[in-house]
Amino acid sequence: MDEAAPMTSEAHVEWFHGSPKRLSSLLAGSTVTPVITLARAFSHKPVNLSIEVIEDEDHGKRQVRILHDGTKHGYLYRVVVDKPEIDLMQHPDSYGAPGEKMLTVQVLPLEFMEEVTFQAVYQYTEEL
Prior knowledge:
Elements: E1 15-19, E2 25-26, E3 31-32, H1 36-42, E4 49-56, E5 61-68, E6 74-79, H2 84-87, E7 88-90, E8 102-104, E9 108-116, E10 121-127
Antiparallel strand pairs: 1-6, 2-9, 3-8, 4-5, 5-10, 6-9, 7-8
């Protein structure tokens, strides 16, 4: 299987979690991502989620489109990760680029960021 195209060229320094529940901490084994838009989509608790990444090298752009079938109201959190190499591990079921879907190894504190307005499709464009 080919490695998936990354959803972002940003360094993985901040981590996010989306949930339909109000939380103060995240249990070990929870999913986190450095891609804030993906966390927003996960906040709606989808069963199915698809990601389309199109890199347009001629124009120096990456377009990302995330579709999901979630229906719940969502909340977005910043995950307090002091040492990613210790606190996180690659999600074994991730089909994305390495580091874009991780699991927490231990309980981690959260910082509430925002309520997430429902969208069935999330998309963004960034520079390559």
